[in-house]
Q: What sequence folds into this?
C-alpha cells in the first residue's frame, strides 16, 4: 500500500466510524430556522440562479447537500469514500423520495467523463485531501463550459490540538496522517479564491458565511456548548465558455 493509499484508507476509516452519528454534530445538518435561512442563502450563491442542473456532490457524506439540491429540482450525483456514509445517504434519499445517484469514489480521481456536470459542490472536503490542488483540477475537468465549482470550507482559528474534542483532526485516524494533508487546518477564503483563478476559473467570488457561524453558535449556546473560533466561507467560480 502506497503512502497516499494509507492516507486515504485512514480518511475512509474515520468517516466510516463516524457515519452513524455524523448528522448529530454541529454544522452537519440544518436544525434551526436561523440555520435554514442561512443555508438557503448558501445554496442560492452556489446555484447562481440556474435551473435543472446536473450536479455532483463531492464528499457527499450522509447526503445533506445532495438532498437539498434535489429538493430544488436538480439532478444530483453524490460520491464519497466511506461506504457507511453512502448507505445512510441512500436511505435518506429513499425516505424522502429523492432520485439521487450515490457512488463510492475518490475526490481526487473522479469516475466520470469530462464536461458532464453543470455544478460541482463540496463541503469541508479540501482539508481531507493529500492533493487538494490536483482535486480542484479534477473537479473542474468534469464541468461543462459555463459550469460552476462551489466550495464550502473554512479555517480553524485555534492551534492544532486545541479544536473541539470531537474534531476529526484530533482523532486516532488523522493523528498519523496530518502531516500529509496540506490544508489540514484550512485556508483563508482569499487563498481559495486565488487558487480558483490560478486554475482557470472565471467570475470567482466568495462569501464569509457570517450568518451560518452566528446561527450555529446560538444553537450551540442553547445546548450548553461553545464552539471553537473558526472561519467559514463559500467560494465559487465558473468554467469559461471559450
A:
Amino acid at each position: 500500500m502506497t503512502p497516499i493509499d494509507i492516507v486515504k484508507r485512514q480518511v475512509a476509516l474515520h468517516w466510516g466510524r463516524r457515519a452513524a452519528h455524523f448528522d448529530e454534530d454541529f454544522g452537519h445538518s440544518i436544525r434551526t430556522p436561523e440555520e435554514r435561512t442561512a443555508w438557503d442563502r448558501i445554496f442560492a450563491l452556489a446555484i447562481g440562479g440556474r435551473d435543472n442542473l446536473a450536479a455532483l456532490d463531492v464528499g457527499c457524506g450522509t447526503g445533506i447537500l445532495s438532498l437539498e439540491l434535489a429538493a430544488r429540482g436538480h439532478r444530483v450525483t453524490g460520491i464519497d469514500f466511506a461506504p457507511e456514509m453512502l448507505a445512510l445517504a441512500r436511505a435518506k434519499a429513499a425516505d424522502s423520495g429523492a432520485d439521487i445517484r450515490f457512488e463510492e469514489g475518490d475526490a481526487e480521481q473522479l469516475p466520470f467523463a469530462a464536461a458532464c456536470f453543470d455544478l460541482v459542490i463540496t463541503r469541508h472536503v479540501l482539508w481531507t485531501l493529500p492533493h487538494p490542488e490536483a482535486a480542484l483540477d479534477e473537479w473542474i475537468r468534469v464541468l461543462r463550459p459555463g459550469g460552476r465549482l462551489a466550495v464550502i470550507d473554512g479555517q480553524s482559528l485555534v492551534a492544532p490540538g486545541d479544536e473541539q474534542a470531537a474534531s476529526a483532526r484530533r482523532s486516532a485516524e488523522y493523528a498519523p496522517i496530518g502531516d500529509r494533508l496540506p490544508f489540514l487546518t484550512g485556508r483563508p477564503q482569499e487563498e481559495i479564491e486565488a487558487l480558483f483563478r490560478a486554475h482557470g476559473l472565471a467570475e470567482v467570488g466568495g462569501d464569509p458565511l457570517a450568518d451560518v457561524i452566528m446561527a450555529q453558535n446560538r444553537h450551540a449556546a442553547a445546548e450548553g456548548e461553545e464552539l471553537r473560533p473558526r472561519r467559514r466561507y463559500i467560494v465559487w467560480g465558473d468554467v469559461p465558455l471559450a
Notes: The longest strand covers residues 143-156. The chain has one domain: 3-238. Residues 165 and 207 are 28 Å apart (CA to CA). The radius of gyration is 17 Å.
